[in-house]
Amino acid sequence: MMLNSRKITAFLMFLSMGFHACKQLEKDSPQPTYPDLNIYLTRFEEEARSRSYDVDLSEVLAVYSDQIIVEGKSYCGYGYSNYSGTGTRRIVISKSASCRWLDRSDIERENLFFHE
User: Fold this and answer.
1) DSSP 8-state symbol, 84
2) How far apart are CA 66 and CA 99, in angstroms?
3) What per-residue confidence (pLDDT) applies to 7?
4) How much is the pLDDT for 32?
5) Would the pLDDT of 104 be above 60?
6) DSSP readout, 3-55?
7) Quick check: 35 pLDDT over 90?
8) Backbone angles phi and psi of 63, in degrees to 5
9) How far apart are CA 112 and CA 78, in angstroms?
């Protein structure tokens, strides 16, 4: 019986070391880098100006969110003209895996951002 308990103890120690190694790999893995959304605000102003439109987006807040749900529907990007009744204009881009923001090309990101 002592032999079986040694095997079980050794097996549990092995599992514990493997679990610890996986957790360490997760800690060491670089977090994805999300570009500053103000880049797209600036580009939008420049594009508007090049078409003789004068827009001031200095008070528009552009932020990331883990998920965007409005009225029960999920979105990859959403533009608010009156965020939570505060009068603030806000553009929100989802980090949700299903939206694939980091997989999009720069022009695809710009397209979604400009749409919002």
Assistant:
1) T
2) 10
3) 66
4) 81
5) yes
6) HHHHHHHHHHHHHHHHHHHHHHHHHHSPPPPPPPTHHHHHHHHHHHHHTT---
7) yes
8) -140, 160
9) 9
Which amino acid, residue 70? V
Q: What is the spatial distance between Cα 115 and Cα 77, in angstroms, rounded to a whole number?
A: 9
Helix axes 106-115, 38-50, angle to 10 degrees: 70
Cα 33 from Cα 91, distance rounded (Å): 19
Q: Is the pLDDT of residue 11 over 80?
A: no
Counting Cα atoms < 13 Å in the Cβ hemisphere of 84 gives 2
pTM of the shown model = 0.71
Instruction: Provide the sign of the torsion angle of the four alpha carbons 65, 73, 57, 33, taken in this order.
Output: positive
What pLDDT does residue 30 have? 80
CA gap 108, 115 in Å, rounded = 11
* Distance, C-alpha 84 to centroid of its chain: 21
- CA distances (Å), 85 to each of 5, 8, 82, 112, in order? 65, 61, 5, 24
Quote the CA–CA distance of 112 and 116 in Å, as a whole number. Answer: 7
